[in-house]
Design goal:
By secondary structure, the protein is mainly α. The chain is built from 6 helices and no strands.
Length: 111
Amino acid sequence: MYCFIQTQSQIYPVQVLCQILELSRSGYYEWLKPPKPPTKAAPETQSIAVSRASNTQQIKDIFGLHRRRYGTRRLVREMNDRGIFVSRDFVRKVLADNQLRPIQPQRRTVP
């Protein structure tokens, strides 16, 4: 059907052709796009374990470098800036597993 619309689109508007054939314009334009290249295969489980271990060590290093002042949000942003993309949940789990807690600022009250 989309081939027919493509050949007739020089004579008639695409909107009219899609209405007559009861097809969506977005479907036609999606069909016109070139096909996406196939995605890469998933890495081996061993390499995943190695990358998790190295990511864990880097998170611990960044945490120590900033003197326990960085929480999960800052650590994720720092890792992303270094080109290592990790989720906030992963960082939270690493901190909990290693019993690392950031220092929270104390409230200051005026007497």
